[in-house]
Every structure is written in C-alpha cells, then in structure tokens.
Design a protein that fits this description.
single chain, 135 residues, mainly alpha, 56% helix, 6% strand
C-alpha cells in the first residue's frame, strides 16, 4: 500500500490518508477484506503522529470504508465494494482541485475568472497532447 503525505499541500495529513485509501480501494489496489497496516506502523512509515493515522482510520470506519476488529486489526470493509466507483473518483478529483481553487479565491479571483482560466488551461493542454510526435 503506497501512501504519500505532501506536507506543502495545505491539506491535513489525515485527510490525505483518507483520500488515498479511498483511491486505492476505488482502483482495486486494496480489496475488500484486505488488512491495512497497524496505526503505529503506518504512522512510522509516513513519519506522522499515530493520532493522525488513528483519525483517518476512524473517519474511514465511520464511513464504513474500513472495519476494525479488536485484536485482529483494520480491514477494508466488505461493504466498500458497494461504494460507487464514480463517487470515490469524484471525491478524489474534488480533493485534488480544492487547494488551487481556495487559493485563487483567497487571492481575489472571481469564480468566472477561475472558470475561464481552467478552461483555457485544459484547452491548451488538450491541444498539446493531441499533436503528433515528430519522429
């Protein structure tokens, strides 16, 4: 299980863990019934306080994405396969875009200016990716 914490992102570490675990489940890299690392182990691997991981696991348990079995560990819930992939992907995409949008709004850009900039960037990117490679 690969999770990375971006300390410069402005997104709390526990939310990054939540989002990435959901993404791993949505993409099939974590399967229902699969055991996750212990809180202490994941905290050590990520270099974060164990309370950060505990908070993430608790939130995911509350959403029924994970289930904790006393004395056995934390597992991907069997119900997680019932969570719509589209919903998990949408949530992940939303978390990717939230920081730049919040930053732009805090700098005084209007929603219309942000929308125009996003469309312009997407259009430019699409045009560049559709060019045939010389060779």
């Amino acid at each position: 299980m690969t999770i990375r914490i971006d300390r410069k992102s402005g997104i709390p570490a526990y939310l990054q863990i939540v989002d990435q675990i959901k993404h791993l489940i949505a993409t099939g890299r974590l399967q229902p019934g699969e055991q996750l690392p212990t809180i202490r182990q994941l905290a050590a691997d990520l270099g974060v306080n164990h309370n950060t991981v505990a908070h993430a696991y608790k939130e995911l348990s509350g959403e029924r994405v994970l289930s904790t079995q006393q004395g056995r560990g934390t597992f991907v819930s069997e119900q997680s396969e019932q969570l719509p992939l589209a919903q998990m992907r949408r949530e992940r995409l939303g978390s990717i875009f939230s920081k730049p949008f919040v930053e732009a709004l805090s700098l005084g850009y209007s929603m219309q200016e942000i929308e125009e900039a996003v469309i312009e960037q997407l259009t430019r990117w699409w045009a560049e990716t559709q060019r045939p490679n010389p060779g």
